[in-house]
Write a structure and sequence with these properties.
elongated; 2 domains; 7-stranded parallel beta sheet; 14 strands; Rossmann fold
């Protein structure tokens, strides 16, 4: 019987769900980061497949692993050079609907400010409405959205943005014709030309050596002063200090940030998400990597993981292969 190890709580919590979804013979084992390393290593030594989003040279040597199936879309924490020979890595998406709805909600909050209107009105402030002819809010219709990385997320966001009457521009890694709902699509070389045109800029590309720090101080300065930046990809795509300074100094008008530069760990469970005090800026919408975190996402992802394990057991081609023979696969399995 084949063995699959669900390593750490993010995966291990879904062991029973996975057992119920598999249609081929697997022994499903779990190991937690709070358990002794010796037990983890014992389970790893037995495993044919691993469900986990991290792998480095700190893992034991000589493993027989043939598949690492990440439970997330990101695979930037897997070191291709550390993988056992012949081990494939597959990722899983299924998050694009939830993230697209989050992006639209963030844009609507930015232009309308329903939460602020509600808070002020509860305190007796009639400004912001026709009764007092106070400040007005905006509309999404007619504004320009720029999408960095036009993959699954970008496509779902573009479809919804078009329904609101927005103009949609995009840049992506591989040259191709503009798809439905996109007015113009260029390669990443066109990013500098895209930024000054946009009222809203969405970062939705994968984190790679080429995209790390890609949105730096120079590129933030290319954006409109009234522009709104949304990051649902990886924090490190945007230079941390440059982003804080740009928001603090009004280089750009605001941001919705759902991905961060530091995350909780057993050693520091209450860590601040950045070394800079973004929480002091009232122009920033901050959420704890929550854009995709829906009940529906979990069901979709674990159905995909079970189906890919079944394919592996039957000797069939796997879906979403992102690392093969120690090299990242440039294909449709990664975001644009």
């Amino acid at each position: 019987m084949r063995h699959v190890l669900l390593l750490n709580a993010y995966s291990a919590n879904h062991a029973e769900r996975l057992r119920g979804l598999l249609t081929t013979e697997w022994e499903v084992a779990t190991a937690l980061e709070t358990e002794p390393t010796s037990r983890r290593d014992e389970e790893l030594a037995r495993a044919d497949a691993l469900v986990h989003s991290r792998f480095s040279d700190a893992m034991p040597q000589g493993l027989k692993l043939a598949l690492i199936q990440t439970p997330t879309a990101g695979f930037d924490r897997i070191d291709p050079a550390a993988l056992p020979k012949g081990c494939l890595v597959c990722n899983v998406h299924e998050h694009e609907v939830a993230i697209a709805e989050y992006v639209l909600a963030a844009m609507l909050q930015w232009v309308i400010g329903i939460a602020d209107l509600d808070r002020r009105f509860r305190g007796g402030d009639w400004r912001g409405g026709v009764a007092r002819l106070g400040h007005m809010h905006g509309e999404l219709g007619g504004r320009t959205l720029g999408i960095i990385g036009h993959g699954r997320i970008g496509s779902e966001v573009a479809r919804r943005a078009k329904a609101f009457g927005m103009r949609v521009l995009g840049v992506t890694r591989r040259p191709r014709a503009a798809p439905e709902n996109v007015d113009r699509l260029a390669t990443l070389d066109g990013l500098d030309a895209l930024l000054p045109q946009c009222d809203v800029v969405l970062v939705a590309c994968p984190l790679t050596p080429a995209t790390r720090g890609m949105v730096d101080a120079r590129r933030l300065a290319l954006m409109k002063r009234g522009a709104f930046l949304i990051n649902v990809a990886r924090a490190a795509i945007i230079d941390e200090e440059a982003l804080f300074v740009a928001l603090k100094d009004g280089v750009i008008a605001g941001a919705a940030l759902d991905v961060w530069y530091a995350y909780p760990s057993p050693e520091e469970p209450e860590v601040r998400p950045s070394r800079f005090p973004f929480h002091t800026l009232d122009t920033v919408i901050m959420t704890p990597h929550a854009s995709a975190w829906t009940h529906e996402l979990i069901e979709r992802r674990w159905r995909f993981i079970a189906a890919n394990l079944d394919r592996f057991a039957r000797g069939e081609a796997l879906l979403n292969v992102v690392i093969r023979d120690g090299r990242i696969v440039e294909g449709e399995s990664a975001e644009g």
